[in-house]
Every structure is written in C-alpha cells, then in structure tokens.
Design brief:
5 strands
Length: about 290
C-alpha cells in the first residue's frame, strides 16, 4: 500500500464515520476493525496498521484498488486550475466533460490531498431532495445533521463555511440533481459568494438542461446561469499521448495494447481499468504456457 492509497482510504473512512452516530458505532459496523484502528487512520498514525488491515478497511468503506493510477492530463490540469481559482477567490465555476474524463477522480483526489484545508467533495445523485442534499453536504463536511430540519442545516452549513479560511465545495455529477435542488443552489450561492468557492462538474447534460429551461423561461434558471458566470467550461479531452501515459502508469506498456485501448476508449479513462484486467489475464496465460 502506498501513501496515496492510504490517503484515499483515510478520506473514505472519514466519510463513513461521518455517516454514523459515533466513531464507536462505525467501528462496530465494520468487520474485524477496532475503534483504535479508525482513530489511528484519522490521526495519521499509520505505522502500526498492516497493509492487510488497510485493505480490509478500504474494501468496507468503498475503496477500489483497481482504479487507474493518476496521470496529469490536460483534463486534470484544467480541473485543478479551477479548483484553486474557486478556492482562492470564492468563485463558482461549472465544468463539463464526457463520461470517463476523470472528473470524479480529480474531485476526490483533490479533496483528499487538501484534507484539513477546507475542501469538501459531494457526489450528487437523483435521490437528493433539498433536505437530503444539505444532509449529505453536512456529512461531507464532517458535521452531524441529526435532528435538524432543512432550514437549520442550511444555517449550520453557512455558519461553518463562513468561519473557514477559503473553503471549497466540489459538487460532482450535478446533472443528477432535480430542478428544485438546482434552484436551491441560488440560495447557497447568495449566502456564500466571495466567501466559499463552488465547482460543479458534470457531463454536458447539465448545460443542455439549463439552456432548455432558460428557453422555456423556467423560474430560477436564468439566475443559475448568471451565478456560474454565464458559461460552461469544457474539458479539453484526452489525446493519444495522455492515454499512453495512463496505460504505462498502469503497467500496460505493449504498443499493441496501447493502440487498442486508444481506438476503443473514445477518451474514457475507465476503459483502462478494464484493460488492466485483460492485460493481467493475458500475462497469466502467457506465463502458464
């Protein structure tokens, strides 16, 4: 287990604990994991934790050891640039890119790398209404939402973010949110603009949707578009050189494999995850022959 992998598991563990009533309850819900282990993971006291235990915890909190190793592509550089800009100046940006272009990976990696520096990552999904959106955001921030109504959660979020130094919220897969939650974004923006950076990441489905709502004069969508700077920033996409670097970083070095992945991937980094399995199986068959 390398340091980056341990940091990924540390981030996921913190999110897992945040969804429990207490650290003790979280430990009790994990198989063969003590509360002391969770405390050591949280406090960076890692020397006493074996690789086997890291994998045990990681598997139970959602860590995937088959995820592609990171390579600094133009997509990643673009995302990191706007994360930094939003954080520094309390600005809001909306960034779009196709499936598999590394948006989620970058958001999770940045939140993990900037842990302790007021960066919060939230993966959105279709089941989030306003109340549960706020609930999930509070949990991502490590705060309890127990017993609070939507108004109280909103007040707590704003109060906490206003106390922090240059906070940043990364809202991933924003296109999954329904219209009412998107309209609620206006309130969040009005309370925090200039004080907290917000970055949306999504496929271009969100830009199509917002422009359609604006064409139909749907209330609130013109205001939403204004608050994201009246533009969607498109990721540049992967080129073959970047795909080659990603393949090589994931132990796929044969020219035949690299060309095949490039031709089949359509710019989707997830294709490398599947490709790494295929290459590993090919090596096993070759060694067994």
């Amino acid at each position: 287990m390398n340091q980056n992998q341990k940091k990924e598991i540390q981030l996921l563990t913190a999110q897992y604990v945040g969804k429990s009533k207490s650290q003790a309850q979280a430990a009790a819900s994990l198989k063969n994991v003590s509360e002391a282990t969770l405390i050591n993971i949280k406090n960076n006291k890692w020397d006493s934790i074996s690789d086997e235990m890291w994998r045990n915890v990681g598997k139970q909190v959602g860590w995937n050891d088959r995820r592609s190793n990171m390579v600094e592509t133009r997509n990643l550089s673009t995302l990191l640039y706007y994360y930094g800009l939003a954080k520094e100046y309390g600005e809001t940006f909306a960034i779009t890119g196709p499936e598999g272009s590394g948006k989620s990976y970058a958001g999770k990696w940045y939140a993990q790398t900037m842990r302790g520096q007021n960066v919060w990552y939230l993966e959105c999904h279709a089941l989030l209404n306003k109340k549960y959106f706020l609930h999930e955001l509070l949990e991502a921030m490590g705060k309890s939402a127990a017993g609070l109504n939507a108004y109280e959660m909103m007040k707590l979020i704003v109060m906490e973010l206003r106390k922090q130094d240059k906070p940043l919220i990364i809202l991933d897969e924003v296109d999954k949110l329904d219209d009412k939650v998107l309209q609620f974004f206006i309130t969040l923006y009005n309370q925090l603009h200039g004080l907290c950076g917000i970055v949306w990441t999504s496929t271009d489905a969100i830009s199509v949707r917002i422009k359609r709502r604006m064409d139909k004069k749907t209330i609130g969508f013109g205001e939403i578009f204004s608050r994201i700077g009246r533009r969607f920033i498109e990721l540049p996409g992967l080129n073959k050189q970047e795909m080659r670097a990603i393949c090589e970083a994931n132990d796929m070095t044969e020219e035949e494999d690299i060309n095949r992945f490039w031709n089949e991937s359509e710019g989707d980094i997830r294709r490398v995850d599947r490709g790494s399995i295929q290459v590993a199986e090919k090596k096993k068959r070759k060694n067994a022959a």
